[in-house]
Write a structure and sequence with these properties.
353 residues; alpha+beta; Uridine Diphospho-n-acetylenolpyruvylglucosamine Reductase, domain 3; Uridine Diphospho-n-acetylenolpyruvylglucosamine Reductase, domain 1; 3 domains; four-stranded mixed β-sheet; 20 strands; 24% strand; binds flavin-adenine dinucleotide
């Protein structure tokens, strides 16, 4: 069956395990059904939320007043060094399958949860590598024009954790992503922490299979791998993006990293560590507001993650995230941006004194 109606709450379909119900919740497994359904909902002006793995969303506690579509289309087609992957495929399985065939460049992106279709939305990245480096094009349904389109890398406007998809959140449904890869298992190490655990220097190369192993181990120590046995991984990964600031505005001793070469700000701006800012604004691992442990707190393994150990609510997530953002602003005058997509909820206004 291509369209399956589901009864659960969004809590059961998101990795932070918060969120209310939905007027309609369906799983769709063919492009044709997906396109017909989306166009029909758009014609009727019905609210629509697209989900893949639910690992980068925070949904409101109240019912979603429309249809939530979970995409589970399948298909991975290799032709030479190009691969077309359906939106519903699992990202990490693609990384494994590429490695098995001698395409090692995706190894630093190992272990990122979620679906292929969501990977271009925030231009997923980790350990010095971003998805945009490998994109050939993205097949979409353009809801504004009501047609299927093929978007080039330029059309996608990729930046650090940003893209045309994120800038126009209700315009595109990603149907498939085409990647172009080099056939090599010898890949560059671009990130200091990864270089250190591999006993190598940044800029040297390493075997991609070994890189994957080290990345998975590093991620496990930070609860950055989805694991049903590890409650600390009930999160959206990083809750805040590393802020981009002018080089002259980098707080003293705060770690900073260059932007991707393609970013027009690369010569004047740097990314600064959001984790450092949070810790140095006085928020420790395991922190929760009001001294009351609802299960919503800063991860014990990673200051950038908000986790739901128990029965926490979206309201509590918002309260904690707003508090963290305010503390950092008061200490450094830097406004943190939220990484996950907030659905029908938002952080409290910053108070500027
Ligand atoms: C433990 C953990 C670790 C993480 N580590 C990283 C990391 O290292 N780097 C990183 O970049 N991210 C990381 N993330 C965030 C997340 O895994 C990625 O952003 C991932 O790509 C989200 O995929 P998803 O299918 O779960 O998306 P969802 O959460 O389902 O959706 C995210 C957004 O994309 C939209 N969307 C999803 N699919 C489509 C589609 N087919 N068409 C149009 N819009 C769509 C949704 O509407 C929503 O706005 C982590 C998350 C967790 C929980």
């Amino acid at each position: 069956m291509a369209i399956e109606r589901l009864r659960e709450n969004l809590r059961e379909h998101t990795s932070l395990h918060v969120g209310g119900g939905a007027k309609e919740l369906v799983r769709v497994s063919t492009d044709e059904e997906l396109i017909d359904l989306v166009l029909d909902l758009d014609r009727r002006g019905e609210p629509l939320l697209i989900l893949g793995g639910g690992s980068n969303v925070v949904c409101s506690d109240s019912e979603f007043p429309g249809t939530v579509i979970i995409i589970s289309t399948q298909g991975v087609d290799w032709v030479g060094n190009r691969v077309v992957v359906a939106a519903g495929e699992n990202w990490d399985e693609l990384v494994c399958s590429a490695l098995d065939q001698g395409f090692g460049e995706l190894a630093p992106l190992s272990g990122i949860p979620g679906s292929m279709g969501a990977t271009p939305i925030q231009n997923i990245g980790a350990y010095g590598v971003e998805l945009a480096e490998f994109i050939d094009h993205v097949d979409v349904l353009d809801r504004k024009l009501g047609t299927r389109r093929c978007l080039s890398v330029t059309d996608c406007e990729f930046e650090y954790r940003d893209s045309a998809f994120k800038k126009s959140p209700n315009r595109y449904v990603v149907l498939a992503v085409k990647l172009k890869l080099n056939k090599t298992l010898d890949i560059p190490i671009k990130y200091l922490q990864l270089a250190n655990v591999m006993n190598q220097d940044v800029g040297t190369t390493a075997n991609a299979v070994a890189v994957r192993e080290q990345v998975l181990q590093l991620r496990a120590t930070k609860s950055m791998l989805l694991d049903s046995m590890d409650a600390e991984s009930n999160s959206t990964g990083s809750f805040f993006i590393n802020p981009i600031v002018l080089e002259v505005d980098i707080p003293r001793n705060c770690p900073s990293y260059p932007l991707a070469e393609r970013d027009p700000r690369v010569k004047t701006h740097m990314k600064v560590s959001a984790a450092w800012l949070i810790e140095n604004a006085g928020i420790t691992k395991g922190f929760h507001v009001d001294g009351k442990d609802s299960g919503i707190r800063v991860s014990r393994n990673h200051t950038l993650a908000i986790t739901n150990e128990g029965d926490g609510s979206t309201q509590e997530v918002i309260k904690l995230a707003s508090y963290i953002r305010q503390q950092v602003f008061d200490a450094y005058g830097i406004e943190l941006s939220v990484e996950p997509v907030l659905v029908n909820c938002e952080l409290d206004q910053l108070s500027v004194s």
